[in-house]
Design a protein that fits this description.
The complex is a heterodimer. Chain A is an alpha/beta fold. Helices cover 31% and strands 20% of the residues of chain A. Chain A has 25 helices and 37 strands. In chain A, helix 20 packs parallel to helix 21 and helix 23 crosses helix 24. The longest helix of chain A is centred in the C-terminal third of the chain and has 18 residues. Chain A is elongated. Chain B is mainly beta. Chain B has one domain: 3-layer Sandwich (Rieske Iron-sulfur Protein). In chain B, the strands form three sheets. Chain B has a four-stranded antiparallel sheet with strand order 2-3-4-8, with no helix packed on it. In chain B, strands 1-10-9 form a three-stranded antiparallel sheet, with no helix packed on it. A three-stranded antiparallel sheet of chain B has the order 5-6-7, with no helix packed on it. In chain B, strand 5 and strand 6 form a beta hairpin. The radius of gyration of chain B is 13 Å and the shape is globular. The mean pLDDT of chain B is 93. Classes of the chains: A alpha/beta, B mainly beta. Chains A and B meet through helix 17 and strand 37 of A and strand 1, strand 2 and strand 5 of B. Strand 37 of chain A pairs parallel with strand 2 of chain B, so a sheet runs across the interface. The complex binds siroheme (SRM), flavin-adenine dinucleotide, iron/sulfur cluster and FE2/S2 (inorganic) cluster. The site of siroheme (SRM) has 22 residues of chain A, from strand 32.
């Protein structure tokens, strides 16, 4: 079959990202691909032109796809040859050098042109824009032979140009029409602070100055302003805005307004012609930052691959300024206005200013100056539309003030030295990550994980890695708005769960078909998640799929580094008997257990058991009255307790019995992540109930119920849910809370991050205030427990899944 | 190259998307069966830190090591980029209902 011809006009960031996405989908071989670029270079990272100008990077360092890359991927690249005509009738493009190339599908990604103010003299030598490598080279050259530079435009681009020229040793004056810098991103106080620190670095400013003409004969010698004043200069950089580059599209008769108009599938009015990037106008908006363009690229690739389900629905953007030493972040509506409230933090001496704009308790915008550590977090809250009333008081102090005393506190990514270790699991330093990001052109946390292994294990450094990405890439980086469940799909966890529920999908195959999974079997990330979603949504209908479970859950033990297993029987509420202790002692001797340990969860661990011996040790233990402790599972783990009122002189309640009752009710339940409980007999809280997923503390009048705590990687103290009087109420709230978590959290999301994501008020509304819903949740939990409370060990001791435990054959 | 085929069992002894091991004097060999009933045999040691690949999750022609999630191509025995490493691959075939294995690795790893 002859392949269709795909032609890309514009070898820039958006167009090439589309091709990369197409390659990722493994669908690029549908097409014979040719790429035309007006510039003489392979695709490079335009964003990093600023650091190149400032002398912090070289041109070679910012190349994204080398010529070899195009070759390896079978893409024909023509550089330095501009496309001058699109003939839609013949389906052909023509280039400056006279080439004519046919297309079946065409992708226009011509970016934009810097706007040159049409004043007399603007065509003189030494008057340039700031857009491409040629401009940067011209500026670098000018800095060798001349001294004075004027940058017209005090926006993002202008300031980066001014900073670069200053670093190259020129005397730079920034001319700005408005009374404050970066007026589209900053409010007055932030803009004033920015101006002050740039002035301290030696830049000069002419504010509220309207350019009237450029002076000079052949080369520029000065700039004249509307008020008649003049200033001498050898170089003028115009950075007053960009114009979508749509001449080609207009000439071809494609409908254009401010940009080439496209629909949600990135098609122009001619369905064979797609367009992405700064040249397009989507739902009335033209974008000038890469994050939205990358989202467009992804959707466009999806349609070029003929998968046909991606939709681009517009983006919310945030900005950072890439001037070394200046931390600045801005997003959304930062000015506020009618119906909004501002939370402001101002420390002029410390050089810090933060403003968060709220509307109806949701973040609508933010400006940060001097301390932008939490920019990504505010941005996330803003895009998710989270209700922040629960955390309002702490909001301005940032994410690390939400009760975290663990790793999350170590934060200032930008100020960390290159040798500082970021990922403590895999020993990855900041320098390694920065190098991988710049040399391999990485844009996402997932890419960084793959290439460096940072954040690939316990994940506690993910936030830090995200910050390093942000500070390395500048405004280019933004966490994806919709995180797909895994690489096999574009659907999010929530979308998948909703489809399973609403379309009554009861098998993995059905889910993958209904939601157009890209791979037939799924992968090690989505399979366990889907399996959980199915069995938790349809406990009586869906069948558990052992092949989709992580090995620990498949064989009901924890795999150890040497391939042996550990066995932890359940010891309800941490309370045991001589008989049970004797049984464990006998088992350790009989099965040559390598080591016996008291665990951190009030139970006993037998380590170093060979896989073949598992069914026999379980048979031994189950006949002596034990059930599995699920110490290996995303499941109900332990219910720790203290001695309580039975013995303790301070005890107000029988916490031991409470823990036993809680564990008896809940054991066997599969969860999105592990789930731990504890019951303490008095507020001295010896069972550490306030760092558990569900904890109860005995008080004189009854019990306090706590939820959403976490020890481990990132410590989080619980939130108080309510106080109750009776044991039955505790059990009810426990069942309702667990079921809400089981039904709504994402797979591998523990209760602590889940409660933070949805908000305590939400959880309260669902299980405290809404009695009917609470009852319904309890009911559903009980139904699900009917299927779950069968001891997996007893079943396997009886021979179930026997193939797991025996070698197929032994060859001497 | 002539292989010395040894019968090791039947296809049905291995669950789809699962694996069983054959113990040999050269160490364990994991035999995998995927959803298309293709079979693959790899030395049961992950090139990373020796994890038992037989315990991993199988999808398509790949298996994910249970210890630290390296993904291995079962056909070539190579780790999926950006991880680098390989593990010996053994010839294995299905004839009728029976599975035959050769102990002579087919890649140099
Ligand atoms: C055995 C035990 C250590 C011990 O010798 O005491 C243990 C062992 C492991 N823990 Fe743990 N944890 C044990 C109590 C804890 C505790 C203390 C507790 O439960 O009171 C914590 C902190 C409390 C908490 O979870 O909030 C704890 C926090 C973790 C974490 C971090 C969880 C988090 O949300 O931050 C992990 C990693 C994970 O789950 O991804 C982890 C993971 C592990 C794994 C499963 C690592 C792995 O994937 O192989 C270890 C398995 C060893 C094995 O094969 O048995 N273990 N682990 C403890 C078993 C308790 C039990 O009886 O079931
Ligand atoms: C100095 C600078 C700093 C920036 N910093 C940031 C930042 O920090 N964060 C951020 O998000 N964004 C930043 N941007 C913006 C970002 O670079 C652009 O949004 C992005 O590059 C646009 O991608 P694009 O593919 O639409 O256009 P481009 O990357 O400009 O690619 C278009 C390409 O098409 C070529 N072309 C045009 N017409 C034709 C034709 N007829 N035939 C053949 N080829 C043609 C052009 O030569 C160009 O190479 C910055 C931009 C600049 C200039
Ligand atoms: S038992 Fe827990 S703390 Fe100890 S090494 Fe394993 S995961 Fe780390
Ligand atoms: S041992 Fe296989 S991934 Fe580490």
């Amino acid at each position: 079959m002859s392949r269709e011809k795909l032609v890309l006009i514009g070898n820039g960031m958006a167009g090439m990202r589309t091709l990369e996405e197409l390659l990722k989908l493994d669908e690029a071989d549908k097409y014979e691909i040719s790429v035309f670029g007006a510039e003489p270079h392979p695709n490079y990272n335009r964003i990093l032109l600023s650091p190149v100008l400032a002398g912090e990077k070289t041109v070679d360092e910012i190349i994204l796809n080398s010529r070899e890359w195009y070759q390896e991927n079978g893409i024909t690249l023509y550089t330095g040859d501009k496309v001058v005509e699109i003939d839609r009738v013949r389906r052909q493009i023509k280039t400056q050098s006279g080439m004519a190339v046919d297309y079946d599908r065409l992708l226009i990604a011509t970016g934009s042109d810097p706007f040159i103010i049409p004043v007399p003299g603007s065509e003189l030598q030494g008057v340039i824009g700031f857009r491409d490598i040629a401009d940067v080279k011209a500026m670098l050259q000018a800095s060798q032979s001349y001294h004075k530079a004027v940058v017209i435009g005090g926006g993002l681009l202008g300031l980066e140009a001014a900073n670069g020229l200053k670093k190259q040793g020129m005397d730079v004056t920034v001319v700005h029409l408005m009374d404050r810098l970066m007026e589209r991103q900053l409010d007055h106080p932030a803009a004033a602070m920015l101006k002050r620190s740039l002035e301290a670095d030696g830049l000069e400013f002419l504010m509220e100055a309207q350019t009237a003409g450029i002076l000079g004969q052949e080369r520029v010698t000065g700039v004249k302003f509307a008020d008649g004043s003049q200033i001498e200069t050898d170089l003028v950089v115009m950075a007053v805005g960009i114009r979508p580059n749509m001449a080609l599209a207009q000439q071809a008769g494609l409908y254009c307004e401010r940009g080439i108009v496209v629909n949600d599938t990135m098609q122009t009015y001619d369905p064979r012609i797609y367009a992405v990037g700064e040249c397009v106008q989507h739902r009335g908006t033209c974008y000038g930052l890469v994050a939205p363009l990358f989202e467009q690229a992804k959707v466009c690739a999806n349609h070029l691959a003929q998968l046909g389900y991606g939709r681009y629905e517009g983006s919310v953007t945030s900005t950072k300024l890439k001037v070394t030493g200046i931390d600045l972040f801005s997003a959304g509506n930062f000015e506020g206005g009618d119906g909004t409230e501002d939370i402001v933090f101002q420390d002029p001496a410390g050089g810090v200013y933060k403003k968060i704009v709220l509307r109806d308790n949701k973040v609508e915008g933010a400006v940060l100056y001097g301390d932008t550590m939490d920019g990504a977090w505010y941005f996330q809250l803003m895009r998710n539309g989270n209700d922040v009333s629960d955390i309002r008081e702490h909001l301005i102090f940032g994410e690390s003030h939400l009760g975290d005393s663990g790793h999350g506190g170590q934060n200032k990514a930008a100020s960390m030295s290159d040798e500082a270790q970021v990922c403590d699991c895999n020993g990855v330093c900041k320098g390694d990550i920065v190098k991988a990001i710049t040399s391999k052109g990485l844009f996402t946390v997932d890419d960084v994980k793959l290439h460096t292994k940072a954040a690939a294990s316990c994940g506690s450094c993910t936030g830090l890695v995200e910050q390093i990405l942000a500070s390395t890439l500048g405004g280019d980086y933004s966490a994806p708005e919709h995180k797909p469940l895994c690489r096999c799909t574009d659907h999010t966890h929530d979308e998948v769960r909703a489809a399973i529920r609403e379309q009554r999908l009861t098998s993995m195959q059905a889910v993958r078909e209904a939601l157009d999974w890209r791979s037939q079997d799924g992968c090690h990330v989505c399979r366990p998640a889907l399996n959980y979603y199915l069995i938790s949504t349809w406990p009586l209908e869906a069948r558990d799929d052992p092949q989709s479970r992580f090995i620990n859950e498949r064989v009901h033990g924890n795999i150890q580094k040497d391939g042996t297993y550990s066995v932890i029987p359940r010891i309800f509420g941490g309370t045991t008997t001589p008989d049970h202790l004797r049984a464990i002692a006998d088992a350790t001797e009989k099965f040559n257990v390598g080591e016996v340990r008291i665990t951190g969860g009030e139970r006993i661990n037998m380590l170093g058991v060979k896989k073949e011996d598992l069914p026999a040790i379980w048979e031994f233990l189950t006949t002596r009255g034990f059930v599995s402790g699920h110490a290996y599972g995303k499941a109900l783990r332990t219910a720790k307790s203290c001695v309580g009122s039975t013995w303790c002189r301070f005890g107000t309640q029988d916490s031991t019995q409470m823990a036993i009752d809680l564990e008896k009710m809940t054991w066997g339940s599969w969860m999105p992540h592990k789930f731990k409980m504890a019951a303490s007999g008095c507020p001295r809280n010896c069972a550490e109930a306030t760092i558990k997923d569900f904890g109860v503390v005995g008080i004189d009048s009854g019990w306090e119920i706590h939820i959403g705590g976490n020890g481990g990687v990132k410590v989080r103290a619980t939130d108080l849910l309510c106080r109750v009087e009776t044991r039955e109420e505790v059990l009810d709230y426990c069942a309702a809370f667990i079921q809400l978590y089981r039904e709504e959290a994402h797979y591998l999301e523990r209760t602590a991050p889940w409660v933070e994501r949805v908000g305590l008020s939400y959880v309260k509304a669902r299980i405290l205030e809404d009695t009917e819903n609470r009852q319904a949740l309890i009911e559903r939990f009980k139904i699900s427990q009917q299927a779950a409370q069968v001891d997996p060990w007893a079943q396997r001791a009886k021979g179930e899944q026997a193939h797991e435990f025996k070698p197929l054959k032994i060859i001497a | 190259m002539t292989e010395n085929w040894i019968e090791v069992g039947g296809l049905e002894d291995i669950p789809q998307l699962g694996s069983r091991i054959v113990q040999t004097s050269q160490g364990d060999i994991a035999i995998f069966r995927n959803s298309a009933d293709e079979v693959f045999a790899l030395r049961n040691r992950c090139p990373h830190k020796g994890g038992p690949l037989s315990e991993g999750i199988v999808s398509g022609r790949r298996v994910t090591c249970p210890l630290h999630n390296w993904v291995m191509e079962m056909e070539s025995g190579s780790a999926v980029a950006p991880d680098v490493g390989c593990t010996p691959v053994y010839p294995v075939k299905v004839e009728g209902d029976s599975l035959f294995l050769s102990l002579q690795p087919s890649n140099d790893c």
